[in-house]
User: Fold these one by one.
Assistant:
Number 1:
Amino acid sequence: MPKRTDIHKVLIIGSGPIIIGQACEFDYSGTQACKALRKLGYEIVLVNSNPATIMTDPETADVTYIEPLNVERLEQIIAKERPDALLPNLGGQSGLNLCSELAKAGILEKYNVQVIGVQVNAIERGEDRIEFKKSMDALGIEMARSEVAYTVEEALAIADDLGYPVVLRPAYTMGGAGGGLVYNKDELKTVCARGLQASLVGQVLVEESILGWEELELEIVRDADNNMITVCFIENIDPLGVHTGDSFCSAPMLTISEECQKRLQEQAYKIVESVQVIGGTNVQFAHDPKTDRIIIIEINPRTSRSSALASKATGFPIAYVSALLAAGLTRSAMIHIQKMAPGPPMMMAPHAPTMLPVPTWAAMAVESAWNDVMPPPWLPPRRLKSPNTRRQPSPKQRNWMPFVRTVNHTPMPSSRISTAMGTR
């Protein structure tokens, strides 16, 4: 399938402020999405509240809005720019939440804006704890015993039935915001109140504790024809109880058997096919090494912090490929493009036997993004080049900064950055 011709202008929601739980990995993903879609000929409108990012550089998008990320301001931008499509799943949790709010408010339908890369109902199935539990039950995939609470009193009653300690997981949050492990009623009252406030829908999942289990992640990429690959198997070194954003991990998995990895992959494929995300999806599992029991923790129907790690570890640019797939390209189309414009040698993923090799259709994306994402080892290091207006770096600086991108100091056209209420 070639790229979509029914859309010409794409709105991308950026990563917002760089805070604990939402770091520069989402700036990386959004930047790669802009570059991929512009190479396909689409006009890109970027909205981000943080000017201190790569994606807000003038050359990244055709039009850049440095505005607060809220429904009111986004509606003003949509009314002014009239984009044909919205790509919400490459800017972290902020993009997904805003997409859901825009859809519920009827703004997307009002201005005929299509959502690409992920379906709006898929966001709900992936982020809403009740819908996610229903989806997993339908697929026959085991989850930790849990119930949903909307008040602190409900959470206390559920915890009494499950037994302490319990885990609180607020819906529509990222980085474990508002949740945590609680050991008694006093801790539950404090954490649950915080979680209900942090949740977009005032919902907290009270879950049995699986403290001490192994936490395992898979990065899956899927196209519109339901072709799927596992880009990376990730094993968190710290056990469950330490959040993945505060932990460190290994790619490939070091202590997990091949048979267990196959089971993880089979379950991940079922989940991704059910949610129908086009592009990258992060799937998180818990594994009990004593009983060999596997349960699903959650999925992120978007690029995640682990996606950036997986891209660096394997050389596969997940965010870049996800943007191409969201634009309508599929495996067959990428094979054709690769034949027309061959890139670097095909890379095999340096992983366990269950790790699928990076297929031929990905080579085109790697070739297009290698200078921006990960310069291959067979290329000589690029030296830092600076305009004459800046002091030239010393040889010592060149040795330790071989891949620093340079800044274009040419005057920025006034039409490149504007505000929602100003003129372009």
Number 2:
Amino acid sequence: MKLRQLVGLFLALAMIATACGSGSDGDSDSTATDTGSSDTTDTAADAEEPAAPAAGIDLDAIMGADLDNCAAAPSGDAIKVGMVMDFSEAAGFVDIPGSKLVPYVAELANCAGGINGQPVEVRVAEAGTDAALATQELIDWGAHFFVGPPFADATLPMQQTGDGQYAIFAAASTEPTLADADSNTFLVTFDDFGQSEASAEYALSQGLTRAIVFTEGEGVPYSGVNPDAFVAAFTAGGGEIVSTQTYAWFVDTDFSSQVNDIATVADGTEVVFSAAAAFQVTALRAQLEGQGLDGLTYMGTDAMDATGVQFETGGEGMIHTPHTIIAAGGANDMLFQQAIAAGVELDSLGFMPLYVDSMLLGIQGILDCGCTEPSGIAEAVKNISGFEGTSGTITYAGTNGIPDKAVPIAQVQGGENVLLTEIG
């Protein structure tokens, strides 16, 4: 994810794919078992259904729970999940629905009897302008670990407030510098290097050896770092960069100058790579095709998924790296449909499994250490290996907090994201 002010501008310009109405403002709807202050929302939380249930978490039972016919209520000491969420324009499009889905899954878990007889409680606090205060409120409540927002301006105060003792899962972030195992801060998905290196590997495997790259500049977070990583991997694999163009991320749609330059060097066999939003790439495509460059391949990052490339006119055939592909009838799809039917407002569905997995990973840390001390839980999280989550297999062991996780390579086919392969 990128600079906050640019994302805010994007949200005014781009339509994000939705399954239902988006969340509105601060508090999330919940059936909390615990009462908090006026700017917090409580709820109960736990798990979702992966391919192979993690030890101690009966995900099949949780997903099969009937809220109208629950098992006996769990009576052990509560597992407490703190969520410090950013409801601003910059991150609200993922944090708002994420903060609604996690409590709903918790409700399912408790309906199924809890985790080893323990209820799971979730409290949501809005970061607002003071993430440290929100974090302290949740520490005072007794949170065992945290699900946090995607930006460092909130996660760093969270780290400092908790003295680096609490596991923090930055659910929707791909920012490489945010992860820090020493401070117990973890990404839940691949980072920018992972997704762009995977894109380069896939392009080369398809015989694409010439590339056109769009960037905001070397080292610029997200819009520059992703192209940097792609270029490094593509050229190391024998590819050639035939043109490098600059643009304003989430702003530009007039690429006439860049297109005129590209037309002088392109032969129509190139791959065009950027971290641009879907509406930008489709605009670029139309302008390049206007110059007779009809055979180009377009590849991008998770920004394409966030901006609904499959719904864009001109998005057909575009290749990108979503966090998850929500297949009709699959476990995630069934969870989302069940939640929506229960009145949970969801948005940005491809990101939602990352929030569920954040909760599951913290619970797995508790089960693995057999403890409730935050530092012990965080230490156990560092050793998680082969965790089958709702967004894929996650390993933290031997990493600095960026999971060793496969990157899906998807293509828009017939208005849907179709998995081509996974790399990593």
Number 3:
Amino acid sequence: MGQIEFGQKKVDQQQFIDAFSTLEHFGSGRSNVELDSQWALGIHQFDDRPFVQSAKRTSDLDEPIVIADAILDNREQLAQKLEIFPGELESLSDAQLIKASFQKWGEKCVDHLSGDYAFVALSPQEAKLTLFRDHIGSRPLFWFRREHTIGFGTALEGVIKVGGYSWRIDESVVAEYLAFPITPVSKPFFEGVQSVPPASIVRIYPGGEDTIQWWSPNTRTICRPVDEADAVALVRGKIEEAVTTRCDTSRPIGCHLSGGIDSTAVAMIAGLVLEKRSRKIDRAYTWSPDSDNKYPISSGRDERRYITSLALKLGAPLTFGKSTLNNILHQFTRPMEFESTLGVVDEHPITLEAGIHGTGVFLSGWGGDEAFSPHGHGVIGYYLISGKWRRALRFARNRYNSANKLKFLTKILWRELLHPLLPTF
């Protein structure tokens, strides 16, 4: 979290400290506030590994100040490019690596970073503030401008406290939220507060600002055959790299199990990584309810059989979901103006259980299976509007085995054709 003054006004240091204190409810950890007459920075670190840390300015006033919320997956590769020795790397935080990258490559440093991050670089001599967000926006980053005052941070409730301003609610965003309550809104609920888009850079100067998109998942046609083994090895390598990085902690590690390919891959890879370090998954969690008279194991494909089997292989005790009507009602009492979604109603009971059991790091592949397959949604619609009627019929028959039934066609007309083709407002 931070505040920058580009004009003659000085930072009200006590007001900034009070604003930063609103983040204490996130839990225990190490906090630090750095203050200057024209800028103020606050960081709160939750883990024992230095993921979240500012890279302090040295006596050289030409050096930028970098503050980051980051988990880098390519620390070793990045250190080689920066000519940092392995022994020195151990003492450097991810923020310090990002600062070194920014000093070497400038804004192009994002081309060399792999992981989850949101960071800000302040160049006092240039009177310039630059905000960066990773490829998919896994870390939020908000900012606002009130005349010559700039506020920014990764927690919205802290950002709106910077400077002591009052804020009006943006009714258009409220309407968007009410129309699609389980989908994250496009911008914060407060007028004048912006969100740095994923894979984007926002430059802020005394006289204005501009935004550039530094990466986009452009699709392309591959004209050569792709070896399946090579593709599998590449995807697996990237997943292993990310999971291994998140296992670099001394805290107890828990994992989410849904029975899908995403959480299964993450959990099993983490189990193998920890086994090499004479450790194991501390506890497994699932949204599914435990089997009892109310929710007996079904004779068909009951994912709880698979989940239980995976937990046994991991050697981890399994905690089942306890979502109830009260959990759903409690969701409406949470600060929606900050969370902006109702899509985590099942997660809250599990995260509470994880806190009770002392889990320090929670691994999940939630939604990751859609990186491999969109479950076929929209494919039929695409074939139909493209005039590929036979392919649409063949796809429907292969998927549902009943494409000739009128009742079936009526059922999928909305889900597979009309809904995917509706315009986005």
